[in-house]
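Researcher: I'd like a structural prediction for the single chain below. Treat it as a standalone chain; there are no partners to consider.
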Amino acid sequence: DNNVILNNTCLGCSIKCKTCSSIEDNKCSSCRYPYVLDQGGECLRKCGNNSFIDSNNNCKNCHSDCKSCYG
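Model: Treating it as a single chain, here is the predicted structure.
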């Protein structure tokens, strides 16, 4: 569902969000393809440095001992 209820009003999520908790861009719970969900709740085209995409299409941080990693 791409809607959220705020103050008894049904509003659309950010266009990048598949589901959300607010209409703000950084309040996504899941993302529409081809976006991935970062740890701050924002849908991005790809994960940032030192992170990878897990099986749920979410960005996760690499272990601190690793220079880079993958899922």
